[in-house]
Amino acid sequence: MPPPSLHRVAVLVLEGAKPLDVGIPAQVFTTRASMPYEVRVCGAVPGRVAGGDGLSYDVAHGLEAVAWADLVFVPGYRFPDREDPPPTVVAALIAAHDRGARLAAISTGAFALAATGLLDGRRATTHWHYTRALAEKYPRIRVDGNVLFVDEGSVLTSAGAASGIDLCLHVLRRDLGVAASNHAARRLVAAPYRSGGQAQYVPRSVPEPQGERFAATREWALHRLGEPLGLDVLARHAAVSARTFSRRFVKETGYTPMQWVMRARVDRARELLERSELGVEQIAAEVGLGTGANLRLHFQRVLGTTPSEYRRTFAGGE
Question: Which pick of 53, 101, 149, 159 has the fewest CB atoms within 10 Å?
Answer without folding.
Answer: 53
